[in-house]
Amino acid sequence: MTSAPPKPGRLLYHISRRAISPRPALRALGAAVLLVLAPAGASASTLAEVLGAVATNARFPAPARADVHFERRWGDTTTSTAGVLAARGRTVYLEVEGGTRALIRPGRIAIAGPRGPRLAELGTQLPGTDLLLEELAPFASDRLTTPQISDEGPLGIVVTAAPAPPSAYVLLVLTIQEEHGTVTRTQYYRDSISELVKIRRESGYTQVDGRWRPTDVTVENFRDKSSTRLSLVWQAAPTIPAALFTPAGLRGPRLLGEQH
Questions:
Q1: I need a labelling partner for 224 at 20 to 30 A (CA). Which of 62, 151, 211, 252 fits?
Q2: Is it the case that residue 257 has pLDDT exceeding 90?
Q3: DSSP readout, 90-133?
Q4: pLDDT at residue 19 greater than cutoff 70
Q5: Tens of pLDDT along 81-124?
Q6: Contacts of 200 (CB under 8 A, 6+ apart)
Q7: Which DSSP string corresponds to the chain?
Q8: Residue range 128-153: mean pLDDT, rounded
Q9: Neighbour count for residue 89 (Cβ, 10 Å)
Q10: Looking at the predicted structure, is the pLDDT value of residue 18 above 90?
Q11: Cβ partners under 8 Å of residue 157, min gap 6
């Protein structure tokens, strides 16, 4: 059972180095990882069922909207900004004060630019936060490479996997609350499978169109020694036009500040 996050820079599980591909980019890492720590108990559901339930919950059967307050703390400095995200299916439209607009799908991100939408570079960060844009994509089980259950207990089912490329990360450790199909904690490893750079925690869930959505998200960034908190107010938004979830939506009217 996992009871506390590991110290920065240390991997939660022992990994056989002989099972790791020597390729520098480590993109095939998930297929090579061998987890030695056995689960604490037998799961009532198969791994495929658990991940399928998370993917189903993460999808948006109808358009929804969340007004977001971002607060970042770094040393004695605290900054805040407002944003809005809208989602339908597996697509998230994001808009933040300062001009950032993005269309985020699992494995593919477009951002608005002066000459029109363009693909975001790998590892693009959301300005003023500790989040990468890829972290805002809805969960998709096909974006994990050979996931494995590595622990089970009162906190949930722990699944370890490598993200499918393109991704800035080489390893993810997900704590899943099986009852609601939610990922309550994510540990992110970057550059090396022993380099824990970030932990994300989600809480305060509410239901929108029968799916569970977090109202409080915190991201602890070990490299920058900073943290970001997102406070989200969710609501169903059936009147949002379908065009918003296409590249054309990045050139259309803004949602931020719009009456709803």
A1: 151
A2: no
A3: TEEEEEETTS-EEEEETTEEEE--TTS-EEPPTT-B-TTSS-BG
A4: no
A5: 999 999 999 999 999 998 899 999 999 999 999 889 999 999 99
A6: 135, 185, 186, 188, 217, 218, 219, 220
A7: ---SPPPTT--SS-B-GGGS---TT-TTHHHH--B-SPPSS--SS-HHHHHHHHHHHHSEEEEEEEEEEEEEEETTEEEEEEEEEEEEETEEEEEETTS-EEEEETTEEEE--TTS-EEPPTT-B-TTSS-BGGGGSPP-GGGEEEEEEEEEETTEEEEEEEEPSS-S-SEEEEEEETTTTEEEEEEEE-SSTT-EEEEEEEE--EEETTEEE-SEEEEEETTTTEEEEEEEEEEE-TTS-GGGGSGGGGTS---TT---
A8: 96
A9: 13
A10: no
A11: 43, 50, 149, 151, 175, 176, 178
Using CA atoms of 78, 79, 84, 89 in order, give the dihedral in degrees to the nearest 10: -60
Q: Which residue has the tokens 């059967």?
A: 61
Question: By the 8 A CB rule, do 164 and 145 touch?
Answer: yes
Cα(first)–Cα(last) distance of the chain, in Å?
A: 44
Confidence tier at 45 by pLDDT (50, 70, 90): confident
- The first and second tokens of residue 89, run together, are 């299916």
What is the pLDDT at residue 146?
93
| Structural domains for the chain | 37-250 (2.50.20.10)
